[in-house]
Every structure is written in structure tokens, then in C-alpha cells.
Write a structure and sequence with these properties.
The structure holds three protein chains of three kinds. By secondary structure, chain A is α+β, with helices and mostly antiparallel strands. Chain A is built from 16 helices and 15 strands. A nine-stranded mixed sheet of chain A has the order 3-6-7-10-1-11-12-13-14, covered by helices on one side. A three-stranded antiparallel sheet of chain A has the order 5-4-15, with no helix packed on it. In chain A, helix 1 crosses helix 4 and helix 8 packs antiparallel against helix 9. By secondary structure, chain B is mainly alpha-helical. Chain B has a domain of 75 residues. Chain B contains five helices and three strands; from the N terminus they run H-H-H-H-E-H-E-E. Chain B has a two-stranded antiparallel ribbon with strand order 2-3. Chain C is built from 17 helices and eleven strands. Chain C has an eleven-stranded mixed sheet with strand order 1-3-2-4-6-5-10-11-9-7-8, sandwiched between helices. The longest helix of chain C has 24 residues. At the B-C interface, helix 1, helix 3 and helix 4 of B face helix 10, helix 11, helix 12, helix 13 and helix 14 of C. Strand 9 of chain A pairs antiparallel with strand 3 of chain B.
């Protein structure tokens, strides 16, 4: 199905270009909610992380979480936005998981506006705004198939999530393809992780992407009717939904019709579906939230937030490339949040190439981000000095990640525990000499320039040491004896 | 200061006659039954046709009175949302104690499995 | 009847038991509240336990605080943990909050004993308590008349001698107007002076909690207890409460007192026109203010002049538009504040086939006529296409009011006007909504500006019913306001106590 649609897309897109703007909601990584001291935490028993504010109890009042504001400011600064005075508004609509039946959100005066994000491998995407708002609770529909609304006989409401701080980051319609949209989200995610602003997990809903999609003839600068597509809970869904929707629009235009502006739902059947339109047109009756006062970050505060920001992924990638990593490796390392670790380990004396290889191949592990640079550097040095083989180094790394950030994650201690005794060089030389003596014909061929027969000697040494020897060290010794 | 006050006074005195007079001179009603029915839907209040008539009268009286604002020139006057000019009020990101769930659910019209129970939600879904 | 000051000092001194004080007041309630209906709930059992704890503290040599053993009545829109908080609405009938309002905590921490929850116009929307879902409260001066509103139950409770102190809330005059109609003192503090945490919201940018008392000194004592910064209310002003009681003894010499011309016309009697001090009101004077009420205000101004204040007239032009601005903004905020009463989390539910129908039927059954009207009015004022013309414009009038007051306070320390345009009226007399809303003409401007204002009894009007004079001051100017109020209290002609208050209770007679 996916393969067919990809192929169809290519054909249908000729003469048309896709125009995408993304609205990304991220849950900010605060300890408490946006307006209440309730823990902002998931997976607990329903309705246990709630205060009168989260439940909208009569008489309760909101107070803004300073940390949430600082995280929003940091994200805004990372996206090259202006940090401006802002005002919270009430967005009025009824829904059971909205405890006050209004959502507190920033409306015409968001805290961050007019920035941009350079997408790796893509263009510069304008950021229209990023604003703070509160999340809703969670409604579980009872009795309908798969907990869906249709056919439900009732619903249960849990307000644990109600009031969790969200930052909604709205891009301009500057994104030209599904791939660029995906890269934008990945880069945004890397920034959020680097800032510690959010754990930004699409699958778990701590990062939610809605796409505004339209198409236009190549060369046109007009914006045509867009559709907003929701329920995109993976990068794959995002890409497929953009391709599907673009194709749908092109098909309509080419049939002499036009799409209608509406909200559509990305479904597991690989299509978007129109959401049932509401009886009443939306009229949210925004007005300034009288229970909260204006937010006016002063320049000193903004500069303190800026100064506390870590190096951003783009800059880190640049430094990784300067250390010899290629762009793809740098991207992988940065997206895992491992760039500071790698760069610090290299700065501590580790071989750059080996460190990058480990980060790309052997550190897709939980706990990798907790490793200490000095420990990683010492592991790489043990490897390059021949104390550990590549295979052993990988095994030691796995143990280090499990134990990090404990002091017990020290690589030499782990190597010792695993019985990875560094081979005495005299012992290794004796084994190499023995292997040469045992295989005189192969040795003649090796000396005549047949490098591939080196495997005979390496294999013999490995057999004798039950795999503990360093293959590279054996190869070095063979070369020494040949050239002597 | 008193000068500013006087100019403010001139500014707001541009109209002779009461709003009720204006209304009786045949201006359109300030709100229609259709509009009242619309706001009742927005506000989720079930009303009968008679009640819609009743509230159309009630709201109409108030909104007719509000027509006195129509002639005010307020272009240079910004809106005031908060009576006392506070800025930047925060709390630290430190967790407090949550409310007791049983105490709260005991006040709920219907509860089940530690949650608030409601009739089915007919909303937007594909 | 004894004042809060006297009760507290006797209880603290150990010469009187808090439990005895409480029984006196409970006896009066039992004897007369059937007629007055000031209370929705009398929390006798909790009160007895609280009073016993006060007595125990005194016995152990601990000081229970400045309100030791003083019974206090709370308006039934202030959250009290475990005691029903109904807002006089079917919607919240029987609802028991899981927490206390900040003011309730402050009063009890100062030694006050909650005696009950008082009646109000439903969700504080009204000026007579006729809009209570549980029936109106009656004015202790004349049971055929309203006590004013919306805090009518609190005002009537104090006037009838059911409690020496009560707290109410004032959104458009809901403390001052009933205080005026019941012949007692009522204070609306500066917006932000007193925490709103735990006050069930009507219109958040106007609502402010304040005290009722029989005299200015008791009101100042209670104001001191409830004032101060509260970190759980973002609109709470980070300023410590001054010593309000110290302001009472200051003289008015040198204070500049402005009589608001738009609210206070000329003397009706041609011979005395203008009076000895004030000239005639120039410019527009709002219609509908009773002549004898105006007379009392002018007499009050004369009295202040006699006491050494500098008295003059001042124009605050925007007050003529206050009523309109208020009746757009306050319903707009209310329409949002009252959305949460949807049958899901607390209070009434009427079942429906789906959530939306359940919401609609619940709100139909739970809200009374006036509340529904204001919710819809506010919804309309905020709705697409009407926001700028109604809500937006009203917010600009609010700024105009702020500016006009600022200009007036550049020349005057306090302002004077009537509190209510009329004395207590008969039930049903103001059934037309605009007629009822005009009760708030004089009080609304201070809610728009957020400035403090209070009502002090000053003589009587028609039918010998009490008249209140309103003293207004700039933001955080409560001390000057109280100084003037205390001077007015000293100069006021004696006000007869209401007939009810002169009778003793069925229990505790002889105290």
C-alpha cells in the first residue's frame, strides 16, 4: 500500500508542489502543571495528580509556573524568535476533559514570535509563533469498538493530564515536501531534547504534530485551500499523510473540483478522513484571562535564559563534522543527544573516528546520554591502545550504559570483571611466531604480497586465545615480521 | 489633570436623548430570537421557544441601553482588562499535595474506576 | 448586642467564654432567622467545636487571636471545607468543597468562629437576594423589603444581630449596597487587597471580598485580618496590610473630600440650595437617585467640612457609562466562569442521551432566570461579530473610568457619593432588569477602577429606612477612606436599631 502510494505520488506531483505548515504541540518537562502545583507526571492512578485548579473546582485560581515560561523562552530563542510581552486568554468551548470548559492559552500575544528553523537537508522554515497553553484531561470512551467514540455508551474522564504545560510551535507554510516536514520535526525534536524542554516523544503524545497541507502549481506563490490533518503519531504517518493529502488535492483540482477547508483525521487505513462537522461553527469567544496578569519578560531575564542554554544541535553537528564525522553520522549523534558526550570525549583525548563510530553503531541504548565523557574517552583509549578489541569495547560500552551515571561504569573495572585481560605483548608475539611456524606455505605467500592470507595467522592466534586477542595487533606483528 | 478630565467629558457627551428614545424611534432590535437561540446553544442552556422570547426581551433591554456606547469616540482609549497593574506573577515549579481523590469523587454526579463518568461524547471523529 | 472588638477582648481576657457568646448568637438565629432567612446553613455543630477550642486555648494561656470567639457569617459563595457552599443555586446545592477559601482560613486563624453560610442572589448576580434559589432574605428593618444584594444574607445577619461580623463579596456593589439598605458598614477593598482564592467567581476582574460590621472599627478589624498577599491568587497585590485601625482615630483636618457631581445632585430644597459649603452640581447628574439620599450625602459632606476637611465638588464623567460597561464585561466573564457547571465534576446533573444534552439539561435546571440571562448576555457580548462593539468597547470605557478617577484623585483624597440610589425597596418592586441594575449605579464605578469604597450609615430616608454614604479612595487608599468613614460615623445622626435586633433570642437571654 505504502509503496504504491509513493509511486503514485511521484506521478501525480508533476506540475504541482506541496505546501505544508506544521503545528507542533510539545509537553514541557516541568515537575508541576502550568497553573497548579499538581505533579505533571504520567502513568499514575487516574485523578491522583490533581488539585482544585486541575479540576476547575469553584473558587480555584491559576498561578503561572515560572519554569514553564523559561522553557518556552529557551525554545523560542533556539528558534530565533522574538520574546515578547504576552497575555493569556480564555478559549471557551465545552468538552468533558476541559475542567473549566475553557482552555487558558495565549492568543493574539504569544510569548515567542517571528523566528525560523534551518532544516538539515532542507530549507529555512519560518516560525510564526510559539505559545503556552494548558493541556486537557483524558477521556476514555466506553463500549465503542476499540475505545472509539462511535457506538460508545459512556465515557470516563481522568484529569491527571489536565493543565500540563504545552508549547504550541506554529511554522509558516514554508515546508515543501513530506521529507522536509519529517526533517523539520526531527530537528525540532533534537532542539527540544538538547534544551531539556520536553522528552518530545511522538508515539507517546508528548509531541503532537498537526499538518496544514495544500498544493499549488509549480511556480505559483499563492496559498490555496488547506486541510488540517490530525492524529499523526509518527514521522511515518506525517510523511504518508502529507503525500496522501497532496495527491488528493491534486486529484480534485485536476478533476475540476477543489478541496474544502476542513480538519481531517489520519487513519490506520492509510487515508485521511473528514471529521464530522460540528453543529455550530466554532466561536471560541477569546477574551483576556482575568485571573492571570500579563507576562512581560525583561531583557535581563531573557539574557539569563539565553546564557543558560546548551549548545544547539546545529552547532554541535558542525563541530562533529569538524572532527571528521560525515553529515549523516553527525545527524544521528545529534538526534540522540550524544553530541556533547562525543565532543567532550574527543576533547579528552579519545580518537575521533572511533568515538563517532561507537556513538553511531553502539550507543542506540538507554543510558547512553548518561555516560560521562571521561569514561567514554578512557574506553576508546583502551581500544586504540590494543587493550581491548573492538568486540570487547562494544561489550564494555553496553555495560557502561546500564550502569551510567554510576562510578561503577568505569570501563577498566568492567573490562576486568568481564575477564578482558589485555594480552601481554610478549605472549602475543610468541603466539604469532608459533602460527608462522605452523603455516610455512601461507607465510611465503604473505611475504610475496598476498595480504589476504593474513587471515590464516589471525585465525590461528584467535583460536589459541579463544577470541581474546586483538586482531589488529596480530596484523601489525605480521607486518613487522615480514618487513624485518 | 482637570483639563484632561474636561476634555474626557466633552468626548463622552455627544448625544442628546436617552437610548430608550432612540430605540422607540424604530431602530432594529438589539438582539433577535435567532441570536438568543444561538447564544443559548453556545452556552449549552436548553430553552423552550417561550423562554427564547423571554430572554430576547431581557437581553434586548440591556443591549438597547448599551447603545449609549455607540456614539462614544474611544479610538484613543485602550482597553483595560485588569484593574490593578500587576505583571509577571509566578510560582516555583515545586509540587504541592494533590487533593484527595475520594473526597472529590464523592461530590461527583457519577464516578467509576477512580474517574468521572459521563454519558457518551458525540464529538468530532471520522 | 456586642461588637466584635468587645467580644474578642473579653474572650481573650478570659472574662467571657466563646461558647457562651456563640450560644447567644445561635439563640438569636433560632428565634428570628425564620423571618429573616439570612442563612442557607447554620453550622452550629462545627461552631460549637470551634468555640470550645478557643476557650481551651484561653484556658491554656494561648492567645486565640484578634477575633477570639467572634462569630462570623460567610457569604455562601466562599468555600468552606466540608460545609455546603451553594452560591444559592440549585447547581451547587449540597456541594462540599475540599478546601477553605483563604479568607476563611484567615478569619478562623484569627480566632473567629464560623456560625453559618449566608444567602445571596444566585452566584452573586442581583441586588436584592430575590434571585436566590432558596428564597429571598428579608430586611431586618422591614420584613416586607429587600436587604439589598447580592450579599443580602450577610448584611441582614449583621443588622439582625445574628453575627457581629460577616464577609461578603462585591462585584458591582454587592457589599456596599446591602450594607446601605441594612444600616450597617460594608467595605469593598482595593481589587487585589484581599485574596479571591476560594471565592466562587462571578466576574473575576471585579470580584472582591470584604467585611460587614455594625461599626467602622469592627469593619477595620476584620479588614486587617483578611488583607494581605496570597501567593495562590495571581491578582493579589504583594503589599502587607497597614494598621487600618490606626486610621480611625486620625482627624479629617486637611483631607480633601470630593463629592461626585454625576452621582450627587443639588439640594431639592430651593432655600438650602447648594448648602453652606457645596455649590450646585454642574453638568449631568444621573437620574433615579432619591432626593433624600442626595440630601444625606450633602449633609455628610457638610459634617466633614465642619470637622475640618476641605470639601468640594468633582466631576467624574465616565461614571455615567459605568452601568453599561459593567453589564457587558461582568456577564462576559461570568459566561466563562460559569461554563464549568456542566454536570460532570460536581453539583447538579440532569441525565441526557449524550454529554452535550446532559450539559444543556443540567444548565437549564441548575441555573435560575437571572443567571441564565447574564450567561447569555455575556456569551453574546463575546461572540464573533459583537466582541468589538460590546465587550471591547466596554473595556475602553473601563479605561476611561480609570482615567477619570485618576484625575479626580489628583485633586481629592477621597470621594463621596450615595451608596444606593434608594433606601430598601419592597419585594418585586424592581422586577424589570434595567431597573434592578440601576441599584448599582453609584457602586459600579469603583469596581470598574478596582479602587476601594465603603458604605457608612448616615441617617435615614423614606419610611425612616437607613441611608448609606459611599466613601471612595484611590487604590490602596483604605486608610484615608476609613479615617473619613470614622468621622462620618461620629457625625451621623443616631440610627435606630432594627426591631429584630432589639429583641433578645429565645436562648441565651440576659447576656
Amino acid at each position: 500500500m505504502a509503496a504504491t502510494s509513493q509511486a503514485a505520488t511521484g506521478a501525480a506531483l508533476s506540475g504541482w508542489e506541496t505546501v505544508v505548515g506544521l503545528e507542533v504541540h510539545v509537553e514541557l518537562a516541568t515537575d508541576t502543571k502550568l497553573f497548579s502545583a499538581a505533579p505533571s507526571r504520567f502513568g499514575d492512578e487516574p485523578n491522583t495528580n490533581v488539585t482544585p485548579v486541575c479540576l476547575g473546582l469553584p473558587g480555584s485560581l491559576p498561578v503561572l509556573n515560572r519554569r514553564a515560561v523559561e522553557l518556552a523562552m529557551a525554545v523560542g530563542l533556539a528558534l530565533n524568535c522574538e520574546i515578547r510581552p504576552s497575555v493569556f486568554h480564555r478559549k471557551n468551548y465545552f468538552y468533558p476533559d476541559m475542567p473549566k470548559d475553557y482552555q487558558v492559552s495565549q492568543y493574539d500575544q504569544p510569548i515567542c514570535s517571528d523566528g525560523w528553523l534551518d532544516v538539515p537537508g532542507g530549507g529555512r522554515v519560518g516560525i510564526e509563533r510559539a505559545h503556552l497553553e494548558e493541556d486537557a484531561g483524558k477521556t476514555t470512551h466506553l463500549g465503542g469498538a476499540d475505545g472509539r467514540i462511535h457506538g460508545a455508551v459512556g465515557a470516563l474522564v481522568d484529569y491527571n493530564r489536565a493543565g500540563t504545560p504545552l508549547l504550541e510551535i506554529v511554522s509558516r507554510p514554508d515546508i515543501a515536501s513530506a521529507a522536509e516536514a519529517s526533517a523539520y520535526v526531527e530537528e525540532l525534536r533534537a532542539i527540544l531534547l538538547a534544551l531539556g524542554a520536553s522528552d518530545a516523544r511522538l508515539e507517546e503524545g508528548s509531541m503532537r504534530v498537526d499538518a496544514n497541507i495544500s498544493v499549488r502549481p509549480v511556480g505559483s506563490t499563492d496559498l490555496r485551500t488547506r486541510c488540517e490533518v490530525k492524529n499523526l503519531n509518527s514521522l511515518r504517518s506525517l510523511r504518508n499523510a502529507i503525500d496522501f493529502e497532496a495527491r488528493r488535492h491534486i486529484g480534485l483540482y485536476e478533476a475540476g473540483e477543489a478541496p474544502v477547508q476542513e480538519t481531517r483525521h489520519w487513519s490506520t487505513d492509510g487515508r485521511t478522513h473528514s471529521l464530522r462537522s460540528k453543529e455550530e461553527a466554532d466561536d471560541y469567544r477569546y477574551f483576556p484571562e482575568p485571573d492571570l496578569v500579563p507576562l512581560e519578560p525583561d531583557p535581563d531575564w531573557i539574557e539569563r535564559v539565553r546564557a543558560a542554554m546548551p549548545e544547539l544541535p546545529a552547532a554541535l553537528r558542525e563541530r562533529l563534522c569538524a572532527q571528521g564525522a560525515d553529515a549523516a553520522d553527525a545527524q544521528v549523534i545529534a538526534s540522540r543527544g550524544l553530541a556533547p558526550l562525543v565532543l567532550d570525549a574527543v576533547a579528552a583525548g579519545a580518537d575521533a573516528s572511533r568515538t563517532v563510530t561507537h556513538a553511531v553503531q553502539n550507543l542506540a541504548l538507554d543510558g547512553a546520554e548518561l555516560l560521562e565523557a571521561a569514561q567514554l574517552a578512557s574506553l576508546v583509549q583502551m581500544e586504540t591502545s590494543g587493550q581491548l578489541t573492538a568486540t570487547q569495547a562494544k561489550a564494555v560500552l553496553t555495560h557502561m550504559c546500564e550502569r551510567a551515571p554510576d562510578a561503577a561504569a568505569d570501563p577498566s573495572a568492567i573490562a576486568a570483571e568481564l575477564g578482558y585481560e589485555a594480552m601481554d605483548s610478549g605472549e602475543l608475539e610468541a603466539l604469532v611466531d608459533q602460527a608462522i611456524a605452523d603455516n610455512p606455505e601461507a607465510w611465503e605467500k604473505f611475504c610475496a604480497g598476498e595480504a589476504k592470507v593474513a587471515g590464516v595467522f589471525v585465525g590461528a592466534v584467535m583460536k589459541a586465545t579463544r577470541g581474546q586477542a586483538d586482531g589488529q595487533a596480530v596484523t601489525r606483528l605480521l607486518a613487522q615480521r615480514r618487513d624485518a | 489633570m482637570s483639563g484632561a478630565n474636561k476634555s474626557g467629558k466633552r468626548q463622552v457627551r455627544q448625544r442628546e436623548g436617552s437610548p430608550t428614545d432612540a430605540a422607540s424611534l424604530g431602530e432594529a432590535a438589539a438582539i433577535s430570537t435567532d441570536q438568543v437561540a444561538h447564544v443559548a446553544r453556545l452556552a449549552r442552556i436548553e430553552l423552550t421557544a417561550d423562554e427564547i422570547e423571554h430572554y430576547t426581551g431581557h437581553l434586548g433591554r440591556v443591549l438597547e441601553h448599551a447603545r449609549e456606547l455607540e456614539d462614544l469616540d474611544l479610538a484613543d482609549v485602550p482597553p483595560l482588562a485588569h484593574p490593578y497593574p500587576l505583571r509577571n506573577v509566578f510560582r516555583d515549579d515545586v509540587a504541592g499535595s494533590p487533593v484527595d481523590r475520594d473526597e472529590v469523587l464523592s461530590q461527583a454526579p457519577a464516578a467509576s474506576s477512580g474517574q468521572f463518568e459521563v454519558p457518551p461524547v458525540l464529538g468530532e471523529e471520522a | 448586642m456586642t461588637s466584635a472588638h468587645v467580644i474578642a477582648s473579653e474572650v481573650r481576657a478570659g472574662t467571657r467564654r466563646a461558647t457562651d457568646v456563640l450560644e447567644d448568637f445561635l439563640g438569636r438565629i433560632e428565634a428570628h432567622d425564620g423571618d429573616v432567612h439570612a442563612f442557607n446553613t447554620v453550622s452550629a455543630e462545627q461552631a460549637r467545636a470551634a468555640a470550645a477550642a478557643i476557650d481551651a486555648a484561653v484556658d491554656e494561656g494561648r492567645d486565640p487571636g484578634p477575633l477570639a470567639g467572634v462569630p462570623v457569617a460567610f457569604k455562601d459563595n466562599l468555600c468552606t471545607r466540608g460545609v455546603a457552599t451553594t452560591c444559592s443555586s440549585r447547581m451547587l446545592e449540597g456541594w462540599q468543597p475540599p478546601y477553605d477559601a483563604t479568607v476563611v482560613q484567615a478569619m478562623t486563624a484569627a480566632g473567629a468562629v464560623m456560625i453559618g453560610k449566608t444567602n445571596l442572589d444566585e452566584f452573586a448576580m442581583g441586588s436584592s437576594t430575590e434571585h436566590s434559589a432558596f428564597g429571598p432574605t428579608r430586611n431586618p428593618y422591614d420584613l416586607a423589603r429587600v436587604p439589598g444584594g447580592s450579599s443580602g444574607g450577610s448584611a441582614a445577619a449583621v443588622a439582625a444581630g445574628f453575627a457581629p461580623l460577616a464577609l461578603g463579596s462585591d462585584t458591582g456593589g454587592s457589599i456596599r449596597q446591602p450594607a446601605s439598605l441594612c444600616g450597617i458598614v460594608g467595605i469593598k477593598p482595593t481589587y487585589g487587597r484581599v485574596s479571591r482564592y476560594g471565592l466562587v467567581a462571578f466576574a473575576s476582574s471585579f470580584d472582591q471580598i470584604g467585611p460587614f460590621a455594625t461599626d467602622v472599627a469592627d469593619a477595620a478589624l476584620a479588614l486587617g485580618v483578611i488583607s494581605g498577599h496570597d501567593p495562590v491568587d495571581s491578582t493579589s497585590i504583594p503589599a502587607a496590610a497597614p494598621d487600618f485601625e490606626a486610621a480611625l482615630a486620625r482627624g479629617v483636618e486637611g483631607l480633601r473630600v470630593g463629592v461626585v457631581s454625576e452621582l450627587t445632585g443639588s439640594r431639592g430644597n430651593g432655600a438650602a440650595n447648594g448648602g453652606p459649603v457645596l455649590g450646585d452640581a454642574a453638568g449631568e447628574v444621573l437620574d433615579g437617585i432619591d432626593a433624600d439620599v442626595t440630601e444625606r450625602v450633602l449633609e455628610a459632606a457638610d459634617a466633614l467640612a465642619d470637622a475640618g476637611a476641605t470639601v468640594g465638588r468633582v466631576s467624574v464623567p465616565a461614571v455615567t457609562y459605568g452601568l453599561t460597561a459593567y453589564y457587558l464585561i461582568a456577564p462576559a466573564e461570568a459566561s466563562s466562569n460559569l461554563a464549568r457547571y456542566d454536570g460532570t465534576r460536581y453539583g447538579l446533573r440532569v441525565e441526557g442521551a449524550d454529554v452535550e444534552e446532559m450539559n444543556r439539561l443540567t444548565r437549564r435546571a441548575g441555573f435560575g432566570d437571572e443567571v441564565k440571562a447574564r450567561i447569555m448576555l455575556g456569551t453574546f457580548a463575546l461572540s464573533a461579530g459583537y466582541y468589538d462593539a460590546y465587550y471591547g468597547k466596554a473595556q475602553r470605557v473601563r479605561m476611561l473610568t480609570r482615567r477619570d478617577f485618576d484625575a479626580a484623585y489628583a485633586d481629592f483624597d477621597v470621594l463621596l457619593s450615595p451608596t444606593s440610589p434608594c433606601v430598601a425597596f419592597r419585594f418585586g418592586e424592581r422586577a424589570d432588569p434595567m431597573t434592578m441594575y440601576r441599584c448599582d449605579t453609584c457602586t459600579i464605578p469603583s469596581n470598574l477602577s478596582g479602587d476601594p469604597a465603603m458604605s457608612v450609615p448616615f441617617g435615614t430616608g423614606a419610611e425612616d429606612l437607613p441611608v448609606g454614604v459611599q466613601v471612595m479612595a484611590p487604590a490602596l487608599g483604605e486608610e484615608a477612606m476609613l479615617t473619613v468613614a470614622a468621622a462620618l460615623e461620629r457625625a451621623a445622626p443616631p440610627l435606630p436599631k432594627p426591631p429584630l435586633a432589639r429583641m433578645s433570642g429565645s436562648k441565651g437571654a440576659g447576656s
